[in-house]
Target: DUF4920 domain-containing protein
Amino acid sequence: MKKLSFVLVAAFVTLTAVAQNSPKPAEKGVTYGAGTENKDVITIANMEEQVQSAGKFSGKITGKVTEVCQEKGCWMKVDKGNGETIMVKFKDYAFFMPKNLAGQTVVLEGEATVKEVSVKQQKHYAEDAGKSKDEINKIKEAKKEVQFVAKGVLVL
Model:
C-alpha cells in the first residue's frame, strides 16, 4: 500500500510540474513570460534600423508568427513584412510558446542584437521545426542575423 501511495504522489507531482511549464493556449489576449501591452510598439523594420545603427534595440515590436519550435515552443520566427523572418527566443528560457501559434499576430517586448548563427545551430533549429533531411543538409554556412530575445509576448 505504501508503494502505491508513493507512486500516486510521484505521478501527481510530475503532472503538476509539467502542467505549470506548459504554455497557455494560443488565444487573443493571452500573455506569456513577463507579459506586455499593445502600446508604444514599432515595426520590425524600424527595430532593425535601430539595431544596425546602435548595435542593439530595447522595446516592443509586432509581427505575425510564421513558425514555432515543434519540440517545446522554445523559439519562434516572426515575419518581417518582406517575406523574411526574425528569430525570437525567450529570456532565460523561462517560458515557452504554444506550438499552434503560427499565423497569429503578437507583440514582443525585449531586446534585439545581431548574432552569428553557426551551421550546427541552424541545423538544430531546422530539426526542431520539423524540416526534411534534404532541407537540413542544405545548410552549409554560418550566418549573421538580428535576433530578438523576448521577456514578454502578447497574442493579438
Remarks:
- The two ends are 50 Å apart (CA to CA).
